[in-house]
Amino acid sequence: MPDILTRLHDWRHHRSTILSSFAVLLILLLSVSGAVSMAHAITSADAKPGAGQTYTIATDTTWAPFEFERDGELRGIDIDLINAIADDQGFDLEIKVLGFDGALAAVQAGQADAVMAGMSITEERKEVFDFSNPYFDSGIQMAVAEDSGIESYDDLAGQRVSAKNGTEGYAFAERLGEEIGFTVTGFQDAADAYSDVTSGNSVATFDDYPILAYGIATGNVALKTVTEQEKASSYGLGVKKGDNAELVEMFNDGLKNLIADGTYQAILDDYLGDNAPEAAAIGGGLAALGNEELEDGGPGTLPTNPNFAVDTPVENGTFTIATDTTFAPFEYQEGGELVGIDMDLLRAIAANQGFEVQIQPLGFDAALQAVQSGQADGVIAGMGITDERREVFDFSDPYFDSGIQMAVAVDSDIASYADLAGKTVAVKTGTTGAAFAEELAAEHGFSVNAFADSADMVNDVATGNSAAAFEDSPVLQFGIASGNVPLKTVTDPEPNAQYGFAVLKGQNAELLEMFNAGLQNAKDSGVYQTIVDRYLGIEAAEGGTGFFGLLAASMPALMQGLGFTLVATALSIFFAMILGIVFGILKLSGNWLLRGLASAYVNIFRGTPVLVQAFFFYFGVPAITGQPMDALTAGVITLSLNAGAYITEVVRGGVQSVDPGQMEAARSLGLGWGKSMQKVVMPQAFKIMTPNLINQFIITLKDTSLLSVLGFAELTYQGRIIIASTFRSFEIWIVVGAIYFIVIWLLTLLSNWFDRKFNK
C-alpha cells in the first residue's frame, strides 16, 4: 500500500510537472504565433497591394480632356487618375496609346491588361469586359457651327451629322437619325468629327459633354452646343472578362481613396474647371464607396457643394481684373495658362455669381495703376489689406491669411533679423514684405533693394548680392518645396497679413459685393479649401530639368513672344516712317510755326524715356479720356512716336546732305517744289539715310522689350514669365538674348541686301 501511495504521489507530482511544462509550451507557442501574426499584420498593412506588379493600360490618342498630349507628354483625366491610383496602390504602369478601337482589341487579344479611354459601361460591353466602379458620369450633347441656325434635333432632317466611331455619341446619333431622318458619318478621331462640321460637310456633331465643353472652353473647337445633355453611361476601367480581377479591385480601392483625400476632385477641376462634377457623387456614390451604401453622416460621407453653382448664366457683365505675373502660388503661368490660388478662386467666384472676367497680368505695381487709371475694374494679386491702401481702394472680405517671412541662401549663417546689420536685403516693390523690411531696416541698420519680380528678388539673394529676402510665407514655402527657390526660411511668419480683392475706392461696389458672396459660398461648400489645397497641399514637387529640357519646355512660349515682338515692331516702324517723313519735311519748311511744331515733337519724344511714354499712353490717357487702351495699341503708339522723332532728324539730315544744286536744277526745269522733292531730292536722300534707318529699326525692335511692363506678351515678357515659375534666370536670359541676336542679325543682313540692291 505504501508503495502504491508513493507511486500515486510521484505520478501526481510528475503530472503536475508535465501539465506545467505543457502550459508553458502552449503559452510560448501562442506567443510566437501571436508575434508572427502581428508581424504579418503589420507587414500587410504597410505593403501596398500592388507592390512589385506592372500592368499595361491601353488608351486612346486624341480625346481631350480624358487623354491627349500637353507639353509633349500624355495627360488628361484618365491618365492622371490611373497614375494616381497606381501610386496609391503601389503598382507600376506601362501605358500604350493605341486609339479607342485599338485599345479594345489589345485587351481582348491579351496585349494589354486593361483599357482606360473614357470607355462607357454598357450592357453590350459587359459581355466582353469586366468593369471597375464608375469614375465619371457622362452625357451626350449636340454641337453645331458658331454661325449655324440649327437649334434642335428636328432641324437635322435631311442633313448629315458626324460622330466619333465606337462612342455613345455615335450610337445615340444613329438612333436619332432613324427617327428624324439624317445620316451619320463616323470618324476615327473626335477632332476630325468636329472639323467636318466647321468645314460645312456636316451640320452637327454628337459627343460626350466633357469633350465638347473642354474643346470649346479652350478655344480649340469652333463650335457651340445647342442642346441639353442626354443622360449617358458612366465611364469605367475595363479588363477582359474573367481576367485581372485584382487590378479592378485595386482600381476601386484607389479611386475611393483619391476621392476621400480630394486628389480626384483636383484632377477633375484641373481639366474641367467650372464644368467639373463632384467626385463624391459620381456613379451615385459608388465610386466613392466601392459599392457600399452612401449614408449621410456615416463613414465615407464626403463634403459636397450644393450651394456652389458653377452654371449660373452670365448676366452680370464682364469685368477686367488686373493681376501680378510672378507670385506663385497665387498667380503664375503653367503650360501657357495663368493659374494659381487667386486665378482659380476668381474664376470659380465669377462662375458662381454669373459674371465674366478678362484677366490682365501686368505685374503688381502696374496692376494697381491700371485700377486707378480705369484700365481695370479690380485687382487680385495676393494684395495685403493695409490702412494706406484703404485710402485708395475698397477691399473685399479677406480671402487668405498670410505672413511675412525672411529667407536666406541655403549656405547662409544668418538666423535672425539682428544678423542683417550693415547688409542689404531684397524685396518686391509695393508688397507688404517691402513695407515690413523698410520698417525693420530702421531698427536693425540694413539697406533695402527693391525688385519688380519675385524671381529677381530671389536671384539677388542666391547670387550673394543681398543677404536675405522678405516675402509672403506661402510664396516662399511653395517655391522652396517645388525646388524653384534655392533659399531657406529662418524666421517664423509674421502674423496679421490678410489678402483681399480690391476695386478703386467708391467704384464697382456691385463687383465687390458679388466677390464677397461668391467667396462665402466657396468657403461654405468646400470649393475654397479644394483650391487652396491644390497649391499648398503639395509636400514635394518635381525637381528642375536640364538645360535642353528647359529649352524645349520654354520654346513655344518664347516663339509666341517673338511673334508679338515682330508684329509690334512692324507696326511701329510703319507709322514711325510716316511721322518721320512728315515732320522731317516740316523741319525744313520756311514757315516758323511748322518748324516749331516739328521741333517740339522731336524734343518731347527724344527728351523723355520710352518707359515713361508707355506708362503715359497706357495709364495716363485712359485716366483723362475714360477710354481704356490695350497694351498693343499703347505700345505701338509709344514706339511709333518715339522712333518717329529720331527718324525726323534722320530725314532732315538726309535731305540737307543732298547738294542744294539738285533742287535748283529741278526747279529750273519747271518742276514744282513737291515734285522736285519727290523725284530728285528724296531718292538721293534715302541713299544717305539708309544706314541710320536700319539702326533705328533695330533700336525699335529692342525697345519692344519695354512693353513687357504693360503686360504685352512679347519676348521679354515671356522670358520673365518662365523665370517666375522656374527661377532659372541665367539660362532663360541667355536664350532670350540669343533669339534677339539672331533676329537682329537676320534683319541687318536683309537691310544690307536691300541697301546694296536698290541704293548702289
Write the layout of secondary structure elements.
Elements: H1 2-46, E1 54-59, E2 68-70, E3 73-75, H2 77-89, E4 92-97, H3 100-108, E5 114-115, H4 123-126, E6 129-131, E7 136-145, E8 160-164, H5 168-180, E9 183-187, H6 190-198, E10 204-208, H7 209-217, E11 223-225, E12 230-235, E13 238-240, H8 245-260, H9 263-272, H10 286-289, E14 318-323, E15 332-334, E16 337-339, H11 341-353, E17 356-361, H12 364-372, E18 378-379, H13 387-390, E19 393-395, E20 400-409, E21 424-428, H14 432-444, E22 447-451, H15 454-462, E23 468-472, H16 473-481, E24 487-489, E25 494-499, E26 502-504, H17 509-525, H18 527-536, H19 547-586, H20 592-606, H21 610-625, H22 631-657, H23 660-668, H24 673-703, H25 715-726, H26 729-759
Parallel strand pairs: 1-4, 1-5, 8-9, 8-10, 14-17, 14-18, 21-22, 21-23
Antiparallel strand pairs: 2-3, 6-13, 7-10, 7-11, 7-12, 15-16, 19-26, 20-23, 20-24, 20-25
Describe this structure in words.
The chain is an alpha/beta fold and 760 residues long. The protein folds into six domains: 1-47; 54-134 and 236-289, 3-Layer(aba) Sandwich (D-Maltodextrin-Binding Protein, domain 2); 136-235, Periplasmic binding protein-like II (D-Maltodextrin-Binding Protein, domain 2); 318-398 and 502-536, D-Maltodextrin-Binding Protein, domain 2, CATH 3.40.190; 400-499, D-Maltodextrin-Binding Protein, domain 2; 547-759, MetI-like fold, CATH 1.10.3720. 52% of the residues lie in helices and 16% in strands. The protein contains 26 helices and 26 strands. Strands 7, 8, 9, 10, 11 and 12 form a six-stranded mixed sheet that branches. Strands 20, 21, 22, 23, 24 and 25 form a six-stranded mixed sheet that branches. Helix 11 (341-353) packs across helix 17 (509-525). The longest helix is centred in the N-terminal third of the chain and has 45 residues, at 2-46. The chain is globular.
